[in-house]
């Protein structure tokens, strides 16, 4: 690429609407341009970075026998209806939806479980054709509530998504682990630091999932991890040890007048007890796809908080017949009026708050979904509300005074908690950006969409599926976020749009101009990826641009050509060195050795 | 690729809804699967064909300094409003349209003139940055009225589209010609026969355009061409010589009673005259974007027909202020009642049909757009209607009796017409599929979207643009349409998903199985693109599959391994030949030499 003959520009000023460094730098260095909310043009330098990442991803996925395909982006709405995901995605509002000329609903795909299942249905029909693994690299769409941080949360983004099909849990587990390993290799090849964390499966469904996070202050997710490197989880999913409760001194069951004690703190002060001795009862309202409101009452220990993601998962499981959880919230006073028969004893609720308080009304489930968190399921002689304002009971026990609800872990793990694998290890917190996510889906999609195979005995069986996704454009920006300095981006060698930039300091000097062009042609012939900055600009402008766009190696053709010397500058370290013109190609070839592992024979 | 471990299938039966051979074969051979109307999954074999075509297109476009980028697929509707194309595309109904969560209109792009102009606006600002040429390879969307023929007319399809920016008409012409040449090289490398034809610019606008057509009976376009190869045009655009008129014997102007002569044939029989002596006046109604109906009256020679594409272009030009032509039709009796004041003398209309016949009504233009075709503009002493039922005039002349309207070529060229470049050559007709189209757009998009540059004198100027498109998925299917036989597809070497298929006749024979695997590994290491058919199937099934999927070279590892022989079968000719195992790799390397021209140094 000769800059004098190419589409190339950089900006002096930092665009005002870019909040994080990588976003600012990609805009300033001419890699991307914003065309609309969360919508970017990938300009030629960016497209080269994307192609480099894609090539690595493609090669690594092919190593484990995944085969590339390409699925449609526009899906008939019916397909999403059939899989049962339409309502959930629509309630989140992230699904772009349209009608075609025949008024048939279509969605712009954010993910392809349905499409790939349909694509292999009726053709992947013998157990001998399993396992199978298909991948694609493609633009996905999400109607984000708040697109931000450039390519980190955009409405269009490139993903490498893959889908595997299996006749046994072992085979699925195998591929799931292989993909995890391959993803780590991809991150290593790109020079990215990524941590694998336990994750919630969200709208994808399935039992097991793992996220890959780039740790950065600009991340939107919270990661809880231990110093020993043995535990890391998305805060939505994280688990930890909870402290043992302090033994309660209330050995007899009594109701007590406790005026003005609606909070745990005020109650403990009044009763002179510890929060670990209190069962707190928290109200929620859950709304499901078939427009049913379920009142929810969670009993959890006084020193703990509810994790709404965990609670959502529990409710989705309990009420799977109601077609998907649409919303879950702590009801406001106004909302309460809509489904209660009278004033609730807020702040003084007991685990047995009577169902008779729920209004008998269409669309309202007539019973509380009572959920008991593990933090209180073995508590003895505890303190809790008395279902009457300004009153609590103490010395209460399960079985005797209250019935246990649906037992579950709905507790929020927090910084400072002790880790389950080693109580000496305390949870620490960091911000992260998800760049990959792998899932064991089980038979959900195959079951609902009718994918079946014949086993060796000729019986029809439902296959198991896994799905795996890597954010290509997000990876590209994550590299710039992890690797930059005050002068610009510092691309890793594997991700850089070009390996070398040849900067001719003064184009008006024929010796420099000629040497520059000669080296450019020689470098290209030797297989180096090289840009030639042969613009009529001052040397200072060219050096600034080279630093800004972040090419790993800069060769400056300046006055030194008189002594047959050029200057080699390492972008990452700023190191400079005079090199004889006749040696520079070999030096560069040595530095740019392709470090990718050799690919295995399939 | 080892078939025993890969996603692979073929179908015995021809799918019932596939009308043309290439569509049937791609479905049967497991290259594509239909997921919805005009919506296809490209399965692994297809994806390899697509990648091969894309790689050739990429290399050839880079030869002429085009740089790859990627633009968003979802565009704000405002952008299309600004360029003035929204109405025209919406009236055709081919634009997928949706609203995002903020109720902002978005369109799914069928083409990217607006987006690319916006992407370079404010950064391509000095004349020194011109010319510039950006391309992308991407899925496009069209809400087709009738998706058909598989990938030939799908709702999603892959295009390689490029856009160039210039400071002079010469520079635009240069790039336009370069792209034309490069397209021809691409077709040649792919082994496709393609003819370049003059074309109509349609909704794209601009002055000059050329289409590239694959000639095939399954084509949806009509091409008119001459045997000498010097002329070819889309029938929508084609021009030809019209025969000189026979001199009229009606030297005096008279009105005549001509009962029951509403057609040219009946009139000529009654008057004993030739159709070339008659001026026929044809009514149309044109509806424009701002909901105005314009009555149109076209005067054309009695032996000629009106070309509605040419007429649409003329009207769009005449009424460019009315925001784009939405529809053009010959009005029905009912439609006529809506905008006329009384009965029209249909079949007896004269060029001066009075405007007073048009109803004075909102949304109806009060004057006929009178268009005079070149076939009648110099006619003398002609016969035409008298604006009175059962009456004509003869011996009429322009100037004296009638005024000429807007002079234009709106005549339909037909098979058998004499060619303009050589009257000895007669136009012939063929069906074709458009696989490429290049346009000189002029300044339309830059002007409307505010793209400006500073010239050497510091003055703001509007650049000129070109745009160029190649249908990647259409090319892929066109190859299968041009190159197949009764047994299946016959891919050209440059487009084949694999160059070689190694077929082990009997996997139960250890010598065959081992030789097959050894050759597979050796071929791969030598850089051959090879599939190994190591399935537990009968040899006959494997041979049929190999023919169906159309791999250029088949190496059969059968009983001959005892004599160290394998069989080499050429797919295209069916030729078979015994080759020593030790020689077969070299023979194949010779056959698969990459024939692509070496790429020049940029």
UniProtKB/TrEMBL annotation, chains A, B:
Gene3D superfamilies reported for this sequence: Anticodon-binding domain (3.40.50.800), Bira Bifunctional Protein, Domain 2 (3.30.930.10), YbaK/aminoacyl-tRNA synthetase-associated domain (3.90.960.10)
GO MF entries: ligase activity
Chief localisation class: cytoplasm
A Pfam family assignment: tRNA-synt_2b
Superkingdom as given in the UniProt entry: Bacteria
Signal peptide as annotated in the record: none
Catalytic activity from the UniProt record: tRNA(Pro) + L-proline + ATP = L-prolyl-tRNA(Pro) + AMP + diphosphate
InterPro entries found in the cross-reference section: aa-tRNA-synt_IIb (IPR002314), aa-tRNA-synth_II (IPR006195), aa-tRNA-synth_II/BPL/LPL (IPR045864), Anticodon-bd (IPR004154), Anticodon-bd_dom_sf (IPR036621), Pro-tRNA-ligase_IIa (IPR002316), Pro-tRNA-synth_IIa_bac-type (IPR004500), Pro-tRNA-Synthase_IIa_type1 (IPR023717)
Entries under SUPFAM superfamilies matching the protein: Class II aaRS ABD-related, Class II aaRS and biotin synthetases, YbaK/ProRS associated domain
Keywords, ordered alphabetically: Aminoacyl-tRNA synthetase, ATP-binding, Cytoplasm, Ligase, Nucleotide-binding, Protein biosynthesis
Start and end residues of each Aminoacyl-transfer RNA synthetases class-II family profile domain: 33-497
E.C. code: 6.1.1.15
UniProt-annotated location(s): Cytoplasm
NCBIfam families according to UniProt: PRK09194.1 (NF006625), proS_fam_II (TIGR00409)
Function per UniProt: Catalyzes the attachment of proline to tRNA(Pro) in a two-step reaction: proline is first activated by ATP to form Pro-AMP and then transferred to the acceptor end of tRNA(Pro). As ProRS can inadvertently accommodate and process non-cognate amino acids such as alanine and cysteine, to avoid such errors it has two additional distinct editing activities against alanine. One activity is designated as 'pretransfer' editing and involves the tRNA(Pro)-independent hydrolysis of activated Ala-AMP.
Annotated domain remarks: Consists of three domains: the N-terminal catalytic domain, the editing domain and the C-terminal anticodon-binding domain.
Subunit-structure text: Homodimer.
Similarity section: Belongs to the class-II aminoacyl-tRNA synthetase family. ProS type 1 subfamily.
UniProt name for this protein: Proline--tRNA ligase
Species name: Deinococcus roseus
Gene: proS
